[in-house]
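Hello K.,

You asked for the raw outputs rather than the summary table, so here they are, unedited. I folded two proteins back to back in the same session to keep the settings identical. This is the first:
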Amino acid sequence: MDNIQLLYVGNIVSGKAAASSQILQFFMRVANLGYGKTVEVHWAGEDGVRRTVLADYCVTAGDGSEYWRAELRFQRQAKADLPGDIRFSLRLQHEGREYWDNNDGCQGYFCAAGSGGRTTGLVPVLNLSPLQGLGASQRSIPLKLAVDPGLAAEKVTVHWTLDDWHHVHKTSCRLQSGRRSATRSGYAGLHPVQHWSTNLKLDGAFRVQYSICCEGKEQTFWDNNAGQNYRLSRAPLKVMILNLHCYQEDDQDRKFWQIAKAVDELGADLVCLQEVAEHWNDGRGDWASNSANIINRRLKQPFHLYSDWSHLGFDKYREGVAILSRYPFERQEARYVSDSSDAYSIHSRKVVAASIDVPYIGTIDVFSAHLSWWEDGFRDQFQRLSEWADGRRGAEVAATLLCGDFNIAAGSLGYGLVVDGHRYEDQYLAANAPALFQQIFRVDDAHWRDRLADDYRIDYVFMNKDSGLRATSARVVFTEQDYGRVSDHCGYLLEFEPL
C-alpha cells in the first residue's frame, strides 16, 4: 500500500437557507512508519482559500496499517457561507519526509456539496465509527458502515461474540443510503457508497469481537479485519505496588507528589503500599502525617483508602500497610499474620485486606502485605496469609491478589514455598516471561531456580490460580528513567483482564 491513502470522504449539507449546516469527513489509511507522524488534509471550498486540518489517529487495522480521521463542521452565518464543493489532498509527514495522496497527480480529489459519502474502493467495508476501546459506562456499540457498491450487498450482518466465540450473536444492519447495486460511477476517483448501520448491545460485557458479512446475489464478502477480527474491550484493571520506606528518603514531599502523579497518569485502579508511616505520637499516631493519606489527598480524585499499622518503625513511626482503591470497599479487614503482635517488635506483621467490586470484572479480594524475611518467620506468615485469603474466597470472588513486599528473592527458599504450594502464582513473571512462568508454576521444572538467578525482586503480586483474571502486562516504575526513585524499592504496575 501507499504510505497514505484516502478511503472515504463525506460532504453532507443539511437544513435550509440561513439555518443550513455542512459536515466534511475524511477517512484514510496510513502506513505505520513509527511514532511522531503528522497527518493532514489540505482542502479548499468554493472560495478557493487553501486550508489545513490535522487528522486524528483512530485504530490500528489487522494488517498493521492505521486508520486516521478528520472531521469539520460548519454552520451558515450572516457573513460566512458554507464551504460548498471541496477539493483536497492528504499529506503524511514523518522524520523529515512527506508523502501525499493527491489522486495520482490529478490535482487532488473533488467532492460536491451535499453528495453524501464517497469511497475510493480501496476498502470494501469501512467502519465510520471506529473505537479504540469501550467506555466505562458504554452499554452498546453503534456501527455505521460504508460499503463499496461494487459488492452489490443485499444483506449485511455483524457476527459478534462476548466470550471468544463460544457463543455467537448475529445482528442485521439497515441500509440507510445508497442503492442496492454495483454501480460505481463518480468523479475524480470517488464513487457513491452504501451506508449501513446497526447497534450491538453489550450489557455488562468486558470485551467484544466482531466480523462483518456482506451478502449479494453472486458473492459473499467477509470483513474480519485481516483475520484478526475487530476487538474492543474495557480498560484493564491496573494494580500498583510500592514499598514507601517509612519517610527515609530525601525530599520526601516531592516524592509523594511524584507517586500521586504516577497513579494519576498511569491510571492505576488499586494501589497497595507498604512501610506506610505516620508519626508515633506516643502510640496514638497522627493521621495528617500518614504517607498513604498524603499521597491520596494529592490525587486528582482521591481514592478510597484503608490503612492499618503493625509496629514501631525506625523508632519514631507507626509503620503499616495500605490499600487505595478507585472503587468503594465492600469489606475490609486487618490481621496479624506473625507470631508476634507486639507493637514494639519489628517481627509483628499485620496485613490489610479489602473486597472491591470492579465494574465488568467482579469482586476482587486484595491484600497488602509486608512479610518478614525467611529466617524471621516468612514460612508461617505466608501460610497464615494464604489460608486467610482462601477462607474469604467464594463464588462471587473473581480473583484474589496478594500484593506487596514479601522479602523473598525470586528463586529463593521462600519463593519455592509459594511455588510448591500450587495455589498462588507470580503475575509479573506470567506477563513478562510466560514460557518461564509455565515451566515454574505449571510444569514444575526441577531446574527452575537456575533460571531466576538474575531476578532480584522481593515485591510481588501473587494471584490465586483459580482466579478468573490474567495478567496482560507488567512494568517496573519509580526508577531513574520512570518517575524517579521515591524509595529504596522500585514499584510495579500490572494490568489484568478477565479470562
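The second followed immediately with the same parameters:
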Amino acid sequence: MNLHDWIDELCDVLDIEAEADEGLLVDLARIAVDNVHPAAGVVTAFLLGFAAGEGGADPDEVEGLAGKAQALAEAWDRPAGVSDEPVVDVEVDELSDAEYADEDSLV
C-alpha cells in the first residue's frame, strides 16, 4: 500500500470526501520539522487541513495556505527543537555556597 492508497482508505474510515496533495503535505511537514520542532510537521499538516476545511478551500487555496505555512517555517528564527526557556548560567561557587535542607538530599 502506498501513501495515496492510505489517504483514500483513511478518508473512507473517517467518512470524509477529501483530496490531499501528499507531495505538498510531506514537503511542508519536512520543512516544519527541519526548521521548527520535531512535532511541527504533524501539527502543521493538521492545522493546514483545519484551515482548509474551515474556509472551504479549493486545491489552489490549499496550496496558497501551505505556501504561507512554509514561508513561516522557513523564516522561523529559532533552531529546530530549541526550547524557549532562558538558559541560566550558574557559577560553581554559587552552588557550593547554597544551603540545602535534608529533604533536598539525594542520599
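The mean pLDDT is 84.

Happy to rerun anything if the numbers look odd on your end.

Regards,
P.
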